[in-house]
Amino acid sequence: MSVLVSLIVMLGMLVIVPAGLRLIDAAGLAAIRRTWPLFAVPGAVALWLPRSATATVLAAVYALGTLVLAAQAPRRLARTRSLAPAEIAVLTALVTPSVAGVALVAERSGQELFGFSLPILALTVPHFHFAGFAAALVAGLVCRASAGPTGRFAALSVPLGTLVVLAGYFLDDWAELLGALVLTAGMWAVALLTWRDIRTGGRGRLTRNPLTRDRFTRGLLAVSAAVLVVTMLLALSWALGEATGLPHPTLTWMAATHGLGNALGFALCSVLARQRLKETAP
Known about the structure:
By secondary structure, the chain is mostly helical. The protein has helices at 3-21, 30-47, 53-70, 72-80, 85-109, 118-145, 149-170, 173-200, 204-208, 215-244, 251-279.
């Protein structure tokens, strides 16, 4: 993996996932939150080792953690018996890191998986930490805080778009473009609702929280919304270029712009802001 991609993945493993899990109200996740470093630290170390048996074993430890997390999804569904849009988004967030975990094991072992090259597997790891876990989680939180069709659309389209993008890996570039369109629409809906709450106030749980008057938290939310406009345009340009053959950014450029922007500007800012909101919620 490149240094940049490894740093982005480390952010997802060590910060975004554990911080995001604290935003999900579920007693069953408490043990996973406490033990997550036991899985994430070996996975992070594996990123910096040459492809080898040692790197593969360490990556497998992380993959095991993501599978344990994914196992919470059916348990949560059995407990809540709910397929409300916000719940679908949260269930998606619980499952998607396992895709990253499996891809990491394959990439660190130097083995192509389902015909995918090692560079594609390397990029699959951050994709399903951020476009999978972080995006679905934030879409679900936004849906709960903002009653209305736009919130429900965001909570449904982000998981659907992620699923179609994954299916596009196995089908063709046009299916992946369709997934990118759906995912972009969902993420822009998240950005719209976030920005509307910041600007208007007075509606929904987010804006009734007095902490939203804090400039730092409002700034984090504003950055997370603004970044999505640019990063998802880049995602669309890449998917369109792959499907049509039109000029489009390289994977290296996408990692440095789309990937880094989503990791720092969207995921990190969103999780930090919503953690602050949760800590001071009435």
